[in-house]
Amino acid sequence: MFRQKMFQNLFFLAYLCFIAFPCAGFAMQAIVEPSLSVSARHDNNYFKAEKKERDVFSYVISPGIELGLETAKTKAFFNYRLNVCYFDDEGSIPAGERDANDGDFLGHDLTAGIHMMPVERLKIGFEDSFYKTIDPARSDTLSNSVLREKYFINRFTPSIFFEAVYNFTFWGRYRYTILDYYSSRNEDSKEDRGIVDIIYNFNSKTCLDFEYQYWIRTYDLATSDYDSSQAMVVFRQQLNYLQYEIGAGYHDRRFDEKGKDDMHTFAYRVALKFQNPPKGLGEAKSYVTLSAKQNFNNVGIAADYFTGHYFSIGLGHVFMKKIGTCIDFSYLDSNYEKYKGLTHKGTISTRDDNTYKVTGKISYTFLKGIIKPSFTAGYEERDSNLAGFGYENTFFMLGLDLSYELL
Length: 407
Fold this sequence. Notes:
Layout lengths: L1 H19 L8 E15 L12 E15 L3 E16 L15 E15 L2 E12 L17 E13 L4 E14 L7 E15 L2 E14 L6 E13 L3 E14 L7 E14 L9 E11 L9 E14 L3 E20 L5 E17 L6 E14 L6 E13 L4
Antiparallel strand pairs: 1-2, 1-18, 2-3, 3-4, 4-5, 5-6, 6-7, 7-8, 8-9, 9-10, 10-11, 11-12, 12-13, 13-14, 14-15, 15-16, 16-17, 17-18
């Protein structure tokens, strides 16, 4: 049923492209760009365990394709990447633990969509994304999970965008999400989400966004279903070298299970990017990014819900037009609502985790960006007040990216 739904969404997008482009006009731009990425990575604590750390090598081969068509009133895109993933233990496997190569799998990254302007001021869009992965962040941007379980996630999003009078813009979206795990150890879920933005444009570079979201998440087994409502006011501005947004609001979450306390929090997000040259004037040679937010995590099993305080900063610069360098730091403070366990001192406490991660990357560009080898190194650490949840992991990765724009 899950795969059938995904193919139905893609068939619907393909049908829209078929009927839209012949009627959209004669001037048309196309993009066809095949690509190939290969990487080899070593983690000294691949399973992110507090004890019994295991060295594991990861090898990924990723062929991909980017397709695009654009006219004056219609734009369509299709991006796909196949991820062939292999894993290998460096040393012996402890008794009772699974072999790393049991996690070998074929992953998929797919995004597709079409945006049309049937009449002046009105835009209609349909987008679909599909991932088969072991990365928890694909299902929840505030995920604190270290599980490496294979799952599918599919999001289908129709939208409408209307430029109204008096500098107001209306943007409405509905997003249907399916989260389906391979293993019975995890619980599948679905989400129906409506998003409405009423935007006041002071000018072409400054706006104020009144955003409201309401969604219902339903689980297949014992975890309580819930509905969330979130209202936020967001200010955005694009300056010469700087673009930023600052938003604040309130998030209310109510559970269906009787006796389970509801959750409420002040929610905010801040995002800032400085780049040189300015946006729209070529690829950035230097940049600084900063983001911060507070909110609930979205996907939780049983007592896995928490208020997350997230912060990140990134720095990048291109030397001699060929040598790319960047360094990124992130921090997540996960304050759990109900998750209780034993501390290292043997007392009972509510779980509170602090996760730090820093990565550095250097790359070199050959043949005008067609060939790009890279080296990445990083360190991550989680401090937890409960026993068994902390870990440290150091990783190194060699990568090679190949891409060539045919059209």
